[in-house]
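Tutorial handout. Part one gives the primary structure; part two gives the three-dimensional structure as tokens.
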Amino acid sequence: MSTTGLRLGLRANLAQFSLLVAVNALVGGMVGQEQTVLPLLAKQEFHLAGYTFLLTYVLVFGLSKAATNYLAGTWSDRFGRKPVLVAGWLIAIPVPLMLIWAPNWGWIVAANFLLGINQGLTWSTTVIMKVDLVGPRQRGLAMGFNEAAGYGAVAITAALAGYLAAQYGLRPAPFLLGAFYVVLGLTLSALVVRETRDHAHLEATQRTSSRNAGEHTSLTNRQVFARTTFTDPALSSASHAGLVNNLNFGLSWGLFPLLFASVGLAVDRVGLLVALYPAVWGIGQLATGALSDRWGRKHLITTGMLTQAAALALIAVAHSFSAWALATVLLGAGTAMVYPTLLAAIGDVAHPSWRARSVGVYRLWRDSGYAAGAVLGGVVADLWDLRAAIWAAAALSFATGLSVAIRMYETHPRTRHAAEETP
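Part two.
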């Protein structure tokens, strides 16, 4: 382990940081290829009946991604960041081919199991690597760029896949995008991306020398899991809010296209509505990540969850393209306030020596939200209807916003210290 010549900060590591932003855009594009097309494929080609069965692919994706997130954090500390990133892209190679040639729905579910592993390994690692590079001062900005690239690519690919599906059919054209992303992502990760674990060691050295010697610097995996899940009010609040945030995304992935199509909207119009949510989410994070470095984390997270609740309520009552467009923009804005800010809060609290593992635990719970959204959305939609499922998500988002406001403490060092010094 050598930290000689290494420096922390965005400017000092701009080339590698920019490369990782591009890699994460390719990671997000792997999800975007499915968003518009798979719910329609389930109905039109595989003739699935019932929303719960249709949402099995979201459930399997969420469970495999959540479990892999936890392993990605541990493996990144043990083996290094780059090997985990490359392994994630290797896992993705068969995914677009399985989606193109799937003879039955079981192949689609299996492809999404592999896609979840791909996302858990690659997205988690690019998050950890960017946090390693920038150090503590610009953590929110770094997460804003990371998540903006990923979800911006989700939006662009979802819209492009919808266009290709409308012009050339549901298969194979939309999934050729994914094949291209795999080739490019694997090539960049294997040949150009550099290891960043020594940057975390450098920050740990600086942090230990500048802070109270009593800070927890060596924790077991079980202790990290407990702190991130239950005992630390900020870490556990972030994990809870992340789960509900991705519950909303998982539900939208499976049910929004069907709701929008139920009033007769064409596939390309459905694709545009589906893309608006992650587009605003992605672009908005360029601002909200940086704002959390100035204003603090807690209030942005609270406001974002309450905004999501309002947007979901509007989606549940709307019946027109224009109303749904407004609601999905509002949903994207609320998510943009939350997403990079939660990751930045984890980075604020967790010590560099166990930060990758804490990120892994947080992302375990956050991405369990995909599975929770699939179950909640499918069961409620089957028992009542699509709109009832969306109302249930709105209620959970509202309750989560209140919980964060009551329980979470401010984590940004500068904002927290300023509050402590105010008489």
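Part three, for discussion. The radius of gyration is 20 Å. The longest helix spans residues 105-134.
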